[in-house]
Fold each of these.
Amino acid sequence: MLLREGDARNVVDAYRYWTREAIIADIDKRRHPLHIAIENFGHDANIGAVVRTANAFAVDTVHIVGRRRWNRRGAMVTDRYQRLRHHDTTAELLDFAAAAGLTVVAVDNVPGAARLEQTGLPRHCLMVFGQEGPASLTKPKRVRR
């Protein structure tokens, strides 16, 4: 069908006429060990943008915590190529991170927070972004180096 009707998918030219499985397999060869989590306890419209950005940087996995439903329009179909994992609770996410050996880094702009660009991050980490409005529910322990 792609050959007969042309490939109108929103993919880079290098992936034209590739199957979705082949695209994912190629991206998997270059994935970065970084994990991203976003909390979805209210109704956060930014999840799609986070998924799209994570896909652009070949992030290992995007974790969505809370509600399973989210507006996929912002992802612009990149959710088909990005690994996604759902966790019902923050505790479930933190258990996953501990089992996977990931350092949890809560990202927020609250007073007293360290500047991200001045912080040495471990290569294998889980960056947790709270939803817009309330702060992140994740309370990771401070990692000292």
Note: The mean pLDDT is 86.
Amino acid sequence: MQGKIPFKGANGEKFWYTKYGSGQKGGQLLPASLKRKFDNIAMQVVEYDNIDSDKQRDIFQRVQLGVALSAPEKLQALGGPWSAWITELQKKYITADGALASHLANFDVSRARAFQNVLAYVMLAFENKSGTHPTNNTEATFLGRTDMPERAFKKRVEMALGMFNEIAEVYYDTAFGDTEKRVAPVEFQFIAYLIFSRMNALSLKRLAREISKMRAYIRKEHVDVRSNSKVFATAWDYVDTVPLTKMPGELFAVEEWEEGADPREGQRRRKRRREEEEEGDTYNGTPASRDEQSAVAGGLRSRQPAEERKPQLPIAEPVRIPRPPPVSMDAPVQSSYATNGSRSVQVSTCCLCCWLCPRSDPSSMIPTAPPTPSSSHVCIISNINTSSLLAGDRA
């Protein structure tokens, strides 16, 4: 429109929209009728932000060739944390060398279809409920999320894709041999979700059998397997019937996958599980006697540091001294003499000595008036001179 680029007709003749352009070299102006027709044409312009260099080159190439962007390509051009993560999953598990695209015969990954298949699988895993049906609109809304995928969810999604690749490589005939037709996009999405939802219940081989049964069930109900609501409903009907029970003595897929990553850890895990199953919740041994030392307690005591161990002093048996019965306050005081060593001492038979004696319990005694400080008594029970107690030692 600025007169810089001419329009070339079928015979090679050049026409210019305006004659004021600096690049004009001959030629003639467009007729007024053609200019009005051009002015009335509505052009759709779409802008994409945060696109990496690979996507920019791909989009530019398609625009130059006059090819309109497909729906998966438009989804792939959207930015955000979820789009970036799904692109990584596509490159790692679908289009990389030795990945699913190389194992599944004639699997279509052109024009961002691999990206859309992984996106639909991630949506099924994220919702994780029967009846979910990803569409172009819901997929675009899902990619518009601003939150980051959780680490545990990302790990489980990637583990399921890794198991998918393992099944396609090791159990290909079991999973895909009975149905010779290529894997449809809706089949790919539900195969990945089936592994995601049953990896803790079924082994890899049982998952391969269920994949084969699901494909046969879907193709029995639908001749043309497309990503529509009817096919999705049929796929959900089958997935909901897949059992969540584990066969006795069988490793489920998660255990097989982790064991493949570290065989020694898998052996240790199986050993611990066997020991737990053998022990159970009951004890089948003989009861231990009370006099027998506990091996557990002995082991705990043996692990005590030497510097923390303190010698235990012998504890003497407590001296039991008979206490004289309490006497009434009105009872007469009787005196007698007893020999204490080499000297004679006066002994009171009332409760006075017991009231003064530190071995007695004052709360159980009948209080009496203490003697005067001039009196001197030696208790035959505690062998203590009561004069010192009267002077304030008891306090």
Note: The mean pLDDT is 72.
Amino acid sequence: MACKSCPFFMSKQKEQHMTDTTNQSELMDKFIEKIESKLADAVISKVSERVEQQIKGISEKNETLLKELVASKSTTDDFAAMLTEATNKIASATGTAQTGGDPVVIAKVDARDVKKYAAAKAEAERRDVPLHIDRS
């Protein structure tokens, strides 16, 4: 029977411990190599899902804001046309319609808008003056 305090036994124990540590290290390296790609794929898929969700939310919000902007613009254009029409009716009813004078001037950008162009043309005809498009 060998003595546990014997230097030979202790050196064997130390060698066994070092061998176990080396084996554990090698096993851990192999484990990491095998799991590395799976872990990367899992992380990438989770991140991709979250990015897609955020982009979808941003896209939906942009669509909502764009619809509100278009509705607001059309409401403003409708109001301007109604105001011009009401002004014309009041002026013709009271006999104070303006005739002659300076031409009606509309900006090039506004002339591209059908409603604004029609309102300016109607105003020019009502006042019996030419319609000019400011191209500057």
Note: Helices lie at 7-94, 108-111, 114-127.
